[in-house]
Amino acid sequence: MSTNKLDQLYRSVIMDHYKNPKNKGVLEDGNVTIDMNNPTCGDVIHLTMNVEGDVVKDVKFEGEGCSISMASASMMTQLIKGKSTEDATKLAHTFSDMMLGKDLDDSIELDDLEALSGVAQFPARIKCATLSWKAMEKGVSGESQ
């Protein structure tokens, strides 16, 4: 596939998650709540999770921000739901590595997250893409509010 067609595909995946976010809302029975913001551009995330033992049973988000920030949150919620907190944290580290242009562990499936790989070319946007992931890491580590 040509680079131009791949870029178009990635843009359409990002816009689909932005316009039709997955797991948007608040978990009424959530036992982990994290609020974070990116003061650089004004992105805000409110993450609620239901973590039982070491498993993320459910997760939802609300927030305001750019398409990259909100699409990343949508993608993240899809990927971590049902995962162990350890696996969710590994995904967050892999995603962070991708944002920094590092070599990735091929055994970790990123699904739609690969569409955000181009963000690495725009350092100012990396914080947008990683905001929800940082919130999730804070939550699963026990730093919830």
CATH domain topology: Sufe protein. Chain: A
Name of the level-1 CATH class: Alpha Beta
- Count of domains: 1
Radius of gyration: 14 Å
How many β strands by DSSP?
3
Helix fraction?
40-55%
Query: Which stretches of 5+ consecutive residues score pLDDT under 50?
Result: none
Kindly report the spatial arrangement of strands forming the biggest sheet.
1-2-3
Helix segment count? 4
Shape: globular
User: What pattern of helices and strands is seen along the backbone?
Assistant: HEEEHHH
Distance between the termini: 45 Å
**Overall pLDDT confidence:** 92
Known CATH architecture: Alpha-Beta Complex
Instruction: Quickly give the structural class.
Output: alpha+beta
Compact overview of the structure:
The protein is of the alpha+beta class. It contains four helices and three strands, in the order H-E-E-E-H-H-H.
